[in-house]
Amino acid sequence: MIATKDESIVNDFRTVRACRMKWLRISTALTGIAACSFLLAQVAPHAREAGAIFAAQDDPAVLSELQLDRALRRNDRLVQDNIEAALAAGDADLADSFVALARDRNIALPDDLLSRVSDAVKDENSTSQFAKRFATGLVTGNADDVASLSGTVAGDLFVIGDIRDVVREGKHLAMGEDTDRLVLGLATAGLAVTAITYVSVGGAAPVRAGLTLVKDARKVGRLGEGLAAWAGRSAREVVDTPMLQNAVAKGSVFRPGETVSAIKAAFRAEKAGALVRLGKDVTRVAEKTGTRGAMDTLRIAEGPKDVARAARLAEAQGGKTRAIMKLLGRGALLLIGGAFDLAMWLFGAMLTLFGLLSSIKATTERLTQAWCDRKRARRLRRAQVAAEAALASAAATA
User: Residues 6 or more apart from 286 whose CB is under 8 A from it?
Assistant: First the structure.
């Protein structure tokens, strides 16, 4: 009798301990659900943004919008501060680009700031200023805005600028001095394209303007290192160096007809496809963003693909492009910095989701097991009660 009572106590203790362990395991799984749900709520927005950026990495227009969202969330005065900086630097065109961006993003700007930008743009586009910059571009061959580029292109269309550059750099080459082969190649290509422009009545003018911009960017040190290296290699391929040296030795800027004919003979048109495409893309950027926008593109581009992306961005964003590229740099064109962080957000979200699903699975299994155990225990108790009743009935009958 005593032994039976002790066994009952031990069984009750084991039952209680098993019950506690069972509910502890269920509670642990429920805690896992709560913790993973909380973490997923924190991680999901970042992961969704990262996924959108990765999906848009081949579309510069969409990519720049997403990158802008991130930048503007971190600093709500970003646009206003950049307008002030542009005005202080005397770049009314850039300030106006930021105003366009603010208008598109519904960012409120002070009225006095808008007035200052409007006055600066009017002053920059005045007739006297335009004429002055046109003359500067025509004479010096350097361009940093629409007016000076118009003068530079005019000089190149009349072959003065290109002959000047070819003769100068060609003589350096002939004498064994430091030669800017990129300027030399672009000027040589420009002479050939100019001839095509005349024949086609302006049909090749966009290429002509684009090549002039690339050449001017090189002269003033605003051509990106990667793009300069690529363009230099391409320029070498389009020029027959011995023939060009001979043409330069006999040519002169004062005999343009003879000089141009000799230089054109040194130009390998079949090798110029890449440079021509670059010229077209640069012109596409300039048409939408202005000369300074094209110069900004050439400064940050690492190759012709970057310029092609910038052309797509400019066609989508128009006057806002300069502001976007000022804020994002090369990141407006392709996914460069932060790719590892974006990947980590996605990886963290996947891990958290996996943890949540595992916790839900564990909770479901443990609750199901608890319900099955409870149902089994009830059957056993009913069977035990029935057995005890049967024994009692048999004993009473006996």
Answer: 149, 209, 210, 213, 293, 294
